[in-house]
């Protein structure tokens, strides 16, 4: 389940690896803490994270990247019971070390401006983007499963502070991709207000591929909306999402499980990175123009299908704008038209560009800016697909391709890129 972004240390060795890849080591929450607080994965195992600490003598030794792992959701108890037997619901069989070749978790300073920071990758094992909290275990398929994502969030941050130096943090970039990107939207202000040490002077958030639309399928069915509403209710997420959003949606609190609704209330400075034609959304929300989008960067699409896709992109931008993100001081954004999902934590981080500005450079300009800066200075928006071939309007998208082989199968979860 750990894809090309993450290469197992056991398969690599040598000085070149040490210089190029971030070696992150596994740490599990002590069992006595997990058991006493109830902060456990779906299968009852302790939560975990991987950490690449900064050099002690480094001027960046109090700077942190905290990154939520993604991996979809389980939509009912039976699916969660199945998920509990995988590494998306358990920490039982995790590798002791992992590595990243690109993105904000890489240690390659030539591609990653955050390479010298402490870099923590929070393992995702609760099935609801670190949001659920049900006291009594649920029985499904003959096993007990636990919905405790919000407790995991609290206890992992506390453990980072008590044992790994996070209590002295001064600069924190919160990020995550896919379901982890959604977690970034949902928990940004809660983390800022409750889980950061008083020493933090700069806290900003970068959700990657986490803006999932509350959108009907191609045939007009609210499939994904109903699925996420079910996750919210099954895992009792009311107290695990943005509290201001919940207060604003009395009777429809489930809407706060969506990025657009929660982001409307987030006041932490934010730099969302997303494709407006996200490949996971094409196969799990939209379900339309399957043969067209399966071609990679839309090269086999008809003019009618391109019109459909441009309409979906317009819907994305309308939803995104309605959240207020583009108009809030201190924000920025990098929204492209590439057919991808989570590529910003892979090759896309160093290769995607809009108006001549590469993603990693756009991110750093925003990161180093004032929290009161005009968001228009750091806003990069997508072009519309072209009616005539080549349909992809952004040449930098050709650096990465995605496959819909998994996305058009009736699966319970998706894999993080």
Structural notes for this entry:
There is one protein chain. The protein has 417 residues and is α/β, with parallel strands linked by helices. It has helices at 15-20, 31-37, 77-83, 149-163, 179-194, 223-234, 243-248, 259-263, 279-286, 290-293, 303-322, 348-351, 359-367; strands at 6-8, 22-28, 48-52, 63-68, 97-100, 118-122, 138-140, 143-145, 171-177, 202-208, 273-275, 333-336, 353-354, 357-358, 379-380. The protein starts with 5 loop residues before the first strand and ends in a 37-residue tail after the last strand. The model is unreliable at 1-20 and 403-417 (pLDDT under 50).
How would you describe this structure in keywords?
single chain; 417 residues; alpha/beta; 3-stranded parallel β-sheet; 13 helices; globular; disordered N terminus
Coarse morphology: globular
Distance between the termini: 9 Å
Kindly report the oligomeric state of this protein.
single chain
Number of strands: 15
Quick check: average pLDDT? 91
Strand order of the largest sheet: 1-5-2-3-6-4-9-10
Biggest β-sheet, characterized? Answer: 8 strands, mixed
Helix content: 25-40%
Cα-atom radius of gyration: 20 Å
Number of helical segments with 4 or more residues: 13
Sketch the topology as an H/E string, one letter per element: EHEHEEHEEEEHEHEHHHEHHHEHEEHE
Report the structural category: alpha/beta
Strand content: 15-25%
Low-confidence stretches: 1-20, 403-417
């Amino acid at each position: 389940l750990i894809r090309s972004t993450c290469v197992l240390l056991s398969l690599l060795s040598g000085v070149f690896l040490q210089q190029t890849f971030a070696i992150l080591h596994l740490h599990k929450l002590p069992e006595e803490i997990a058991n006493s607080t109830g902060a456990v994965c779906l299968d009852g195992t302790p939560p975990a994270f991987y950490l690449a600490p900064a050099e002690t003598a480094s001027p960046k030794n109090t700077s942190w990247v905290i990154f939520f792992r993604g991996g979809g959701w389980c939509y009912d108890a039976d699916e969660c019971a199945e998920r509990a037997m995988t590494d998306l619901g358990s920490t039982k069989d995790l590798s002791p070390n992992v590595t990243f070749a690109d993105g904000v978790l890489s240690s390659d300073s030539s591609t990653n401006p955050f390479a010298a920071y402490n870099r923590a990758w929070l393992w995702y094992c609760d099935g609801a983007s670190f949001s659920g909290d049900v006291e009594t275990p649920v029985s499904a398929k003959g096993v007990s499963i636990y919905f405790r994502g919000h407790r995991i969030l609290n206890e992992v941050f506390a453990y980072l502070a008590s044992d790994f130096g996070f209590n002295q943090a001064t600069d924190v970039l919160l990020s995550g991709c896919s379901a982890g990107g959604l977690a970034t939207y949902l928990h940004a202000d809660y983390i800022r207000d409750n889980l950061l040490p008083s020493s933090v002077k700069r806290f900003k958030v970068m959700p990657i591929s986490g803006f999932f639309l509350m959108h009907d399928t191609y045939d007009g069915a609210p499939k994904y909306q109903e699925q996420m509403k079910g996750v919210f209710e099954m895992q009792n997420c009311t107290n695990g999402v943005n509290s201001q959003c919940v207060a604003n949606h009395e009777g429809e609190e489930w809407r706060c499980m969506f990025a657009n609704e929660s982001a409307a209330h987030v006041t932490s400075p934010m730099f969302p990175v997303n494709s407006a034609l996200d490949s996971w959304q094409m196969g799990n929300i939209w379900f339309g123009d399957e043969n067209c989008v399966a071609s990679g960067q839309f090269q086999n699409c008809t003019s009618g299908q391109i019109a459909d896709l441009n309409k979906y992109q317009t819907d994305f931008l309308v939803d995104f704008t309605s959240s207020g993100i583009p108009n809030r001081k201190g924000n920025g954004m990098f929204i492209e038209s590439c057919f991808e999902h989570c590529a910003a934590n892979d090759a896309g981080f160093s290769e995607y560009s809009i108006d001549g500005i590469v993603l990693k450079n756009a991110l750093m300009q925003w990161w180093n800016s004032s929290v009161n800066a005009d968001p228009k200075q750091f806003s990069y928006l997508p072009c519309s697909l072209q009616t005539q071939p080549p349909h992809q309007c952004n040449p930098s998208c050709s650096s990465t391709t995605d496959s819909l082989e998994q996305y058009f199968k009736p699966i319970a979860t998706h894999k993080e890129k």
